[in-house]
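Our example copied in:
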Amino acid sequence: MVLTDEEKAILDGKSGRARQKAMDLLVRYGEALGADRLLEINNVAGGVPAGLPFLKEWALKAKSMDEIFSEINLDAGETVEIPKVKTFASRLINAMDPDHWQIMGVTPETHELNMKIEWFCNRIGMNVLNTCAPYQIGNVPVKGEHCAWMESSAVVYINSVIGARTNCEGHASTGSAMLVGRIPNWGYHVTENRYGTHLVKVGCSVESEMDWGLLGYFFGELIQDKVPVVQGIEKIPDLPRLKHCGAAAASAGGVELYHIIGITPEAPTYEAAFGPNKPKGTIVYGEKEKRETYEKLNSAKEKTVDFVMLGCPHYNLEQIMKVARLLEGKRISQNTVLWIFTAKPIKAACDRIGYTEIIENAGAKLMVDTCPAIGKVRPDGVKTAATDAAKHAHYMPPTLGFDTWFGTTEQCIDAAVTGKWNGGLYNG
């Protein structure tokens, strides 16, 4: 891999030990991937994962946050002092809501650890956004911009909907990238790799957010990590619909980039979407496939619903407005818990507008910074849950251990109010 003089100097230690370790990791990473060079970048979305359940016990024993970052984010083999980041860097989703951690079942020591991590991120100059959807609250790359992002639903969104360029990175690559402003030139940074590989012909109605989640889950499961090109969508979808589509596709199969002919920025035409490629396969998505995908995502049998989870990926303001209108003047069932997740700046707007008050008056909670699947947080005694997110319907049964209903936002609010699942594929 060819390095510039500046990159060689950093690798030689002329910018300090931490940046040297970061450059060393990125060079090893790039060479393993066959990258020809490093790209200069100024947009990183990552984090320090030590507050997550699978690393918590180790992190509690660490002597300092520098030790944690050196080990997890730099693979340094030693503790180095972490300087300010070089790039515009955003911290992604956290393991808890700092105001509701107790009702989430978070222990005091885990709460303290998460607050230390947040302090550390502020200290090194990261923007602590604590969301899986940073493109909703200020980190919005432009078409063609090279980035280094984690979080599958965020990666597929900025690649597909915005036309920015990133691979689905990890804690080590993003941690190193934010210190030196570089990432290897491979994968979806390369134009030739962004052309479509498979054609998806849509032959049924795709209207609601649930419909878009079903479509994404369908082609994600079949195509896995390739690049689908969707044909047959006539009505331009909004942000929540595209967000649900990509999140479902990434969960079902690892899709990091998809195209919708005539809608997404790199697919104005069929020819532009595929470039020099010929489709390796064509799959049809009709009423039969839609029904089969819906049934696959609905693992529950018990009609009584203990827990309703909304906000995966994190809700935007429009989605919370919709929920507030559905809940206004109502009370959720005394046997059901309703948690709605968003980013803190969006909740601040909801506080001012009055949506938070409507939601809380109904007996629900508007929460920030985390989600059940990431933080492993849940109410006590849940046996059956409901969600309007195909991604969470995919993850909740294996990660949290309870059966899940999947449906529209309206169906989920109805379940929260009545305590029963009355949803279906075609009943609102």
About this structure: Residues 146 and 165 are 5 Å apart (CA to CA).
